[in-house]
Design a protein that fits this description.
- Keywords: ATP-binding, Nucleotide-binding, Transferase.
- Residues 31-278 form the Aminoglycoside phosphotransferase domain.
- ATP binds at residue 54.
- It comes from Nonomuraea fuscirosea.
- The protein is an alpha+beta fold.
- The longest helix is centred in the C-terminal third of the chain and has 20 residues, at 277-296.
- The chain has helices spanning 11-22, 71-82, 113-116, 122-140, 160-177, 186-196, 246-250, 260-268, 277-296, 298-301, 310-321; strands at residues 26-32, 39-45, 50-55, 91-95, 102-106, 111-112, 147-148, 156-157, 207-209, 218-221, 228-232, 239-241.
- The strands form 4 sheets. The chain has a 5-stranded antiparallel β-sheet with strand order 1-2-3-5-4. Strands 6-10-11 form a 3-stranded antiparallel β-sheet.
- The chain is 39% helix and 16% strand.
- A hairpin with a 7-residue loop joins strand 7 (147-148) and strand 8.
- Helix 4 crosses helix 8 (260-268), helix 5 (160-177) runs antiparallel to helix 6 (186-196) and helix 5 (160-177) packs parallel to helix 9 (277-296).
- It folds into 2 domains: 11-106, Phosphorylase Kinase, domain 1; 111-321, Alpha-Beta Complex (Aminoglycoside 3'-phosphotransferase, Chain: A, domain 2), CATH 3.90.1200.10.
- It is globular.
- The two termini are 32 Å apart.
- The chain binds adenosine-5'-triphosphate.
- Adenosine-5'-triphosphate (ATP) is lined by residues 32, 34-38, 40, 52, 54, 89, 105, 107-108, 112, 216-217, 233-234, 236.
- Adenosine-5'-triphosphate is lined by residues 32, 34-38, 40, 52, 54, 89, 105, 107-108, 112, 216-217, 233-234, 236.
């Protein structure tokens, strides 16, 4: 699956970026196949280190509004998470301006959780879920001063309700622009979201929300027993908002807020989650938001329907806003 948003850059140019940034020559480089948005390269340096280069989409790529300059949020996330104890790649270099904005980070020795899942004993999976819960709670302790997307002044606000509604409206405008195949007209979705928006006022402090913590973005180290989480990666979709929103991305098709192991770790590390009526409404709003992204990004990325869980996502969205 090769998205239109992936920048095509010859190997020699990727190696040139690395050399200019780190002063080392590349002895081997290969593009990583995974990832559906950014182009990533794994590069071995002449001092033996391995790094990953993440390239922003080309300047003329067709993007959703919130994806513009999104590399800035990923660059911002690394230092914010640094003091939390959450494992992540080390950011070695961030070039946010110029013709090829990119990040260079350490390569993590680990495999994405879905590829590792079959090799885990049930008790190991449960312990890893609890540890993940602890890490998520640690991220949520990082607080901001405004709500919304760090990289987009137009999608930030002093209240969570205002920021979230602006984020939703941005997506719905994208849907109209790309003629996305929504299950309901955009105006009706906007009305349904506003009908539940009162619950957003319960959120008064902007927390760091990763919002892309599906298992593919969690790398596991199976080289030791018990296995451990080697890194959380792919921080670009983060925003300042309601910690509850991360429970949506943790299990896109399920209900992470009912996962006893995840919750045990989350609460042990000081995270608070109570499924009050307001919390359930907020979860439905965040699920709606995530499903909208999944439906609307299809066209600009150049995927065809069969590639993704289009119909499933539409069905889920319909259930939420019916
Ligand atoms: N620092 C790293 N070390 C090792 N592997 C990495 C690293 N960063 C990324 N990868 C690999 O590259 C893949 C894609 O990276 P990433 O998730 O950042 O890209 P993306 O295009 O933003 O993804 P998505 O499709 O989730 O938006 C990861 O699933 C992982 O396998």
């Amino acid at each position: 699956m090769d998205a239109h948003t992936k920048r095509r850059l010859p190997e020699a140019e990727v190696n040139g970026l690395v050399h200019r940034a780190l002063g080392r020559r590349a002895v081997a480089a290969r593009e990583l196949g995974a990832g559906t948005f950014a182009a990533l390269w794994r590069v071995r340096l002449d001092d033996g280190r391995e790094v990953v280069v993440k390239l922003s989409p080309p300047a003329d790529a067709t993007l959703l509004a919130y994806e513009r300059d999104i590399i800035r949020t990923e660059a911002m996330f690394y230092p914010l998470a640094e003091g939390t104890g959450v494992p992540q790649p080390r950011l070695l270099h961030a070039c946010l301006d110029g013709p090829v904005p990119h990040l260079i980070m350490t390569a993590v020795e680990g495999i994405p959780w879905p590829e590792a899942a079959e090799r885990l004993a049930e008790e190991e999976s449960r312990q890893l879920r609890a540890t993940l819960g602890q890490y998520v709670a640690a991220l949520h302790r990082v607080k901001g001063t405004e709500f919304g997307y760090p990289h987009l002044p137009g999608m930030r606000a002093a209240t969570w309700k205002e920021a979230f509604l602006t984020m939703v409206d941005g997506l719905l405008a994208d849907a109209v622009r790309f003629d996305a195949d929504l299950p309901w007209p955009a105006g009706e979705i906007a009305r349904a979201v506003r009908a539940g928006a009162g619950a957003l006022d319960e959120v008064t402090e902007p927390a760091l929300v990763h919002f892309d913590l599906w298992p593919g973005n969690i790398l596991l180290d199976l080289g030791r027993r018990p296995p451990r989480i080697a890194a959380l990666i792919d921080h670009e979709r983060a925003f300042w908002g309601d910690p509850l929103a991360d429970f949506v991305s943790l299990d896109v098709y399920g209900r992470a807020e009912h996962d006893p192991d995840l919750l045990r770790g989350y609460r042990q590390a000081g995270g608070r989650l109570e499924l009050t009526e307001g919390a359930l409404t907020r979860l439905a709003l965040y699920r709606t938001y995530l499903y909208l992204i999944m439906i609307i990004e299809e066209k600009p990325r150049g995927f065809d329907d069969a590639d993704r869980h289009d119909r499933v996502v539409k069905g889920l969205l319909e259930q939420l806003i019916r």
